Amino acid sequence: MIRIVSACAFASLLCLASVGPSVQAQTAPAQIFKERQEIMKQLWPGYYRDMSRATRGEITDLPPLAVKATQASEQLKKLSTLFPAGSGREAVPETRAKPEIWTQRADFNAAIDKLAAETVAFGEAAKAGNADAMKAAWPKVAEACGACHGGPSKSGGKFRFEE
């Protein structure tokens, strides 16, 4: 019995040691870039397109939009962790992330936090079934997106190079 308990304890320690202090620190910059790129590619078609359509009256089933808003906010929180030092153009030349993400980190984090908060506010309006509040919240979501991106994809922005 003691051997079994000791073996289990030893196996647990080995598992913990293999995970290490930070999985992200051990992840290659190219993989981190791919993860953040996938999140960014999914934000519009997966979440924000339907939110936009709802504000134009094209979607009238509002409760599912509250779920999408929550999911988008969760993705944004994850996204904010996917810009560690050393994952910019020096390591991944194809990234469109500007160096300002790392040199103005507080501003970058604040911009993502604002987008997440505005998205949650939109979701709360959807959950309440309040189309007017959603219409009022949508420009704030769009403005928060533009804080990083600027305008259309060719325009660049504070934290993104032009395409």
Task: Write a structural description.
With 163 residues, the protein is an all-alpha fold. The protein has a single domain, classed as Four Helix Bundle (Hemerythrin (Met), subunit A). Helix content is 69%, strand content 0%. It has helices at residues 2-19, 23-26, 29-55, 63-80, 100-103, 105-127, 131-149. α6 (105-127) runs antiparallel to α7. It is elongated.
Let me know the average pLDDT: 85
The major β-sheet equals: none
Order of helices and strands: HHHHHHH
The number of domains is 1
Low-confidence stretches: 1-25
* CATH superfamily (homologous) name: Cytochrome c/b562
- The CATH topology is Four Helix Bundle (Hemerythrin (Met), subunit A)
Count every beta strand, where a strand is a DSSP E run of 2 or more residues: 0
Q: How does the helix and strand content classify structurally?
A: mainly alpha
Share in β-strands? under 5%
Oligomer: single chain
List the defining traits of the structure above.
Four Helix Bundle (Hemerythrin (Met), subunit A), mainly alpha, 163 residues, single chain, disordered N terminus, 0% strand
Outline the secondary-structure elements:
Blueprint: H1 2-19, H2 23-26, H3 29-55, H4 63-80, H5 100-103, H6 105-127, H7 131-149
Helix pairs in contact: 3-4, 3-7, 4-6, 6-7
Summarize the structure.
The protein is 69% helix and 0% strand. It has 163 residues and is mostly helical.
